[in-house]
């Protein structure tokens, strides 16, 4: 039988180990965002994380496993944010508003994620876990938007449009906003998100949203910089 003191020690060691693994994954994500996968070395990651070389191999088998777990972890954390929004909002307009605000609030993480996903879609064959996580990410995003638009149409608040096509349109342009921020070195993601939300309200014929986002309250635009 394990004593209470031994249990506490094991938990403390487990927590500390998880924290170190997360530090390594965060450093890896930053580097994989800045450079292509092949050019990033284990030494680069340990130098960025400020840990010893051997610590990487204590938590991860190799660079490929570190990449897979880091990207999967980032996607899973993002999906959790989407799920929380969906759980707490039953009004389609509120859910769409909160979904856009989440994208603004998490813009730094999502920007990295989109860059990595674009690079991952290239010729390099990656792990099934990352591919499945990416697929799940887009499925969750599409599901939330489709369901919200469908509900708004049934309540007579939105025009009778094709919800799935609208969801695909918005998802595609969200990716475009993040990827374009790398190409043009433009970090004004919040304003671009508000422009896209205005375009969505226009497509849906939601006049109250169009008026509100034409004003563009300063406090919303500044969210991403805080």
What does this entry show, briefly?
The chain is mainly alpha-helical and 226 residues long. It contains 11 helices and no strands.
What does this structure look like?
By secondary structure, the protein is mainly α. The protein folds into two domains: 1-60, Orthogonal Bundle (Arc Repressor Mutant, subunit A); 70-225, Tetracycline Repressor, domain 2. Helices cover 78% and strands 0% of the residues. It has helices at residues 4-34, 42-49, 53-59, 63-88, 92-105, 107-120, 128-154, 163-183, 189-204, 207-215, 218-221. The chain is elongated and about 60 Å long.
Provide key terms for this protein.
78% helix; 226 residues; elongated; mainly alpha; 2 domains; single chain; Tetracycline Repressor, domain 2; Arc Repressor Mutant, subunit A; disordered C terminus; 11 helices
Helix-strand topology string: HHHHHHHHHHH
Number of domains: 2
The CATH superfamily of the largest domain turns out to be Tetracycline Repressor, domain 2
Summarize model confidence as the mean pLDDT.
83
Strand and helix layout:
Elements: H1 4-34, H2 42-49, H3 53-59, H4 63-88, H5 92-105, H6 107-120, H7 128-154, H8 163-183, H9 189-204, H10 207-215, H11 218-221
Helix pairs in contact: 1-2, 1-4, 1-6, 4-5, 4-6, 4-7, 5-7, 5-9, 6-8, 7-8, 8-9, 9-10
